[in-house]
Amino acid sequence: MAAVSVRAIEPRDRSATFGKVLRLPGVYAVQSDSLLLAETLRREGVGPGMRVLDMCTGTGALGVYAARLGARVTAVDISRRAVLTTRLNAFLSGQRVTVRRGDLMASLPSRSFDLVVSNPPYVPAPATLPPRRGAARAWDAGHDGRVLVDRICDSVSDVLRPGGVLLMIHSGLCGTEETVRRLGRAGMSASIVERAHVPFGPVLRGRLDWLRGRGLLGAHDNREELVIIRAEKI
Fold first, then answer.
1. Top-tier CATH class for 11-233
2. Confidence band (pLDDT; 50, 70, 90) for 1?
3. How many CB atoms lie within 10 A of CB 214?
4. Is the dihedral of CA 52, 13, 206, 23 positive or negative?
5. φ, ψ (nearest 5 deg) of residue 18
6. Which residues pair with 225 in a beta bridge?
7. Rg of the chain over all Cα atoms, to the nearest angstrom
8. Quick one: which H or E segment has residue 233?
9. I need a surface site. Which of 2, 40, 140, 178 has the fewest CB within 10 A?
10. Which residues contact 214 (CB under 8 A, 6 or more apart)?
11. Which pTM value belongs to this model?
């Protein structure tokens, strides 16, 4: 896929793709990364009969979108507010989505999905471990931003059928090539299929000095790279 540059998502863009999305306080809002993943889901050919897992579902926007395309969807999040938000959004959209609260795959009785889509916490943070509560739980992911990304890479193959696909988005700040290598070691054929550059959001703007001090950003960088990794179970 060709590289693209994506502007900040306006309300009309969000509603055109996802419809009306409710969000309880502390739940990750639909942003540029959500829209990019939705577009990639559509291009992947998600449709009737496919079993889709939306991991780290947040508002459930991606899971509901996949259900609208005809997929049988299970959505998982560790946040109680995210689980409630997803159930509300599925109900209001008239879509059937099975919603579970749990730590990644731990809550899943069934482990044979055609596709896993994930927009996990991926922002590098001064704290070594991600927060256990509060709004920052939806984006902070340790010093290198990989606390959740690495766990997904190591275990996602367990919930995919042979030939099943992972679509995961994260920031270029947390090591895109490492994600590809790690998925390869886990028995997946992985590559970067989309790159986009978006203006810094409020979280990154608030820690620019720390990110530059760690060498993750240059002095004049003013946009964040987002990447979508596609990995197929061999």
1. alpha beta
2. very low
3. 14
4. negative
5. -105, -10
6. 197
7. 16
8. strand 223-233
9. 2
10. 124
11. 0.93
The closest alpha carbon to 106, from 40, 39, 152, 166, belongs to 152
CA distances 80 to 76, 97, 121, 200, Å, are 10, 16, 16, 28
User: CA 110 to CA 126: how far, in whole Å?
Assistant: 36
Q: Is 143 helix (H, G, I), strand (E, B) or coil?
A: coil
Q: Would you say residue 230 has pLDDT above 50? A: yes
Tokens coding 80: 């109680």
Pseudo-torsion of CA 182, 188, 191, 195, nearest 10°? Answer: -70
The one-letter amino acid at 11: P
* Token couple for 197: 């550059």
So where are the chain's domains? Answer: 11-233
Cβ burial of 131 (10 Å; 0-12, 13-18, 19+) is middle
Sign of the Cα torsion 181, 230, 203, 25 reads negative
Give residue 29's identity as a one-letter amino acid code: A
Which of 41, 44, 36 lies closest to 54 in space, CA to CA?
Answer: 41
Burial of 35 (0-12, 13-18, 19+ CB in 10 A): buried
Distance from C-alpha of 70 to C-alpha of 50, rounded to nearest angstrom: 8
Q: What is the rounded CA–CA span in Å between residue 122 and residue 107?
A: 22
Residue 4 has pLDDT above 60, yes or no: no
Q: Token pair of 137, please? A: 């739980």
Q: CA nearest 196: which of 166, 178, 213, 171?
A: 171
- Summarize the confidence of residues 135-160 as an average pLDDT: 95
Residue 103's contacts (CB-CB under 8 Å, 6 or more residues apart) are: 78
